[in-house]
Design brief:
The complex is a heterodimer of chains A (454) and B (90). With 454 residues, chain A is an alpha/beta fold. Chain A has 15 helices and 14 strands. In chain A, strands 1, 2, 3, 4, 5, 6, 7, 8, 9, 10, 11 and 14 form a twelve-stranded mixed β-sheet that branches. In chain A, helix 6 (127-142) links the parallel strand 3 (113-120) and strand 4 (146-154). Chain B has a single domain, classed as ACT domain (Alpha-Beta Plaits), CATH 3.30.70. Helices cover 37% and strands 39% of the residues of chain B. Chain B is built from three helices and four strands. The chains are: A alpha/beta (454), B alpha+beta (90). Chain A binds chain B through residues 1-4, 6-11, 62, 65-69, 251, 254-255, 257-258, and chain B through 5, 7, 33, 35, 37, 44, 46, 48, 58-59, 62-63, 77-88.
Amino acid sequence: MINMIEATETIKMITQENLDVRTITLGISLLDCIDSDLDKLNENIYKKITATAKDLVTVGQAIEREYGIPIVNKRISVTPIGLIGGSACKTPEDYVTIAQTLDKAAKEVGVNFIGGFSALVSKGMTRSDELLLRAIPGALSTTDRVCSSVNVGSTKCGIDMDAVRLMGEIILETAQRTAAQDSLGCAKLVVFCNAPDDNPFMAGAFHGVTEGDAVIKVGVSGPGVVKTALEQVRGESFEVLCETIKKTAFKVTRVGQLVAQEASRRLKVPFGIIDLSLAPTPAMGDSVADILCEIGLEHAGAPGTTAALALLNDQVKKGGVMASSYVGGLSGAFIPVSEDQGMIDAVEAGALSLEKLEAMTCVCSVGLDMIAIPGDTKASTISGIIADEMAIGMVNQKTTAVRLIPVIGKGVGQTVEFGGLLGHAPIMPVNPFSCQAFISRQGRIPAPIHSFKN
Amino acid sequence: MKKTIITVVGQDTVGIIARVCTYLADNNINILDISQTIVSGYFNMMMVTDASAAKKSAEQIAEEMEKLGTDMGLSIRCMHEDIFNTMHRI
């Protein structure tokens, strides 16, 4: 039977160290909603989402109360809309109406984000995909809860540089269309390489075509728990350090597994995966950068940061894998800048640059995330940064992503406030040299040699 | 059997166990095990209970116990035992 020490440990993790289930994300396939009539398509999508997800929020809240574990977000991901709207949408404006339908459905069922206004264009764009990409600024500036993502590369297919070039322009246009809210639209837009089909985390979540009709995906978190555990092993060897991270990751993931099984049973929707992630929030003590400091760095970004992050990312996976029957999604340590107080402090102290963050993305779970850059950054420069990040993902067979926010009207030295979970960020300098001629080339970068495993 | 673990933490005072147990008895919740200690004036108690015969829902019981705690200046948490079992037992 459980003893008092164990009970106290669990309660302390929840009440003092910010242990929580970051999200229960219900993935819903919209493939059976396809229709060539736009109004009918919108109606089908609205009905499917509101019917499938009607109990999601109440079930989430009931589990929260019964087990005493906070479940911070309840969210929905849907089939990439680029695959759904093809026969009904003739213009970008047609696609915007679908985004508005998703927004309405999200509000009706009470989820705070819905992901899947997405296109998968790693080898090339269909006419429909391109219309969707061009609809993104309109979609994100006229909705509140819709998140968008575009997969522009993969290890198997290479990188679609035409899409990379277009996304630089789309990101800038989205920033301009949402300039009144400090370019908030860009916080809901991710560009991916090797995007997973089962990611529960926003803004990059979508319900992949390899998935079933509906599925439960759970993202766990707990940087504060890892940080507190590491405080007990200061000065110890790497072996002790790694063991401590693994044990903690195991405990955190077990909670996610329990919540996922319970949500799956109550909603009568199959359990998909647990995403074993250390996802920070702007709250004090809920920071991945603080873990890096606890491992022995003065600030995130100091020499040694990439090694410390590689170690952390690997041990989180090793500890978490055994705790769950299915793992997937992005699994690892997230390093968003605006959502992590320790990262913000590191940028403000001058310890962390965009280039160091790029190096860190080679070993963390995703990529350049929630980074505010000057609003006058050129579209081709944004495309260049995307291309670099996509190349890292393609060659290393990992998921990488870019979520940059060019803040219109602001420059280096100023800060931007997004509020809530999205946090605030100092605007970071971008390398001023041009990559215009490189980005202007047409076509795609071929897949790397190690993609041919046939 | 659906077991619930109740933890009570806070400044020690007269009648904590009495009030908690009265609430449990009134709601037909059976106590299976109690361990309790006082560390430098701080009251710590853990109870394992069986709420399968209770009329109220687990959520409602958790809310009412929390409120009972607030009234007495204590922190009372009522959680399904599975969260502890999954975390601490393989």
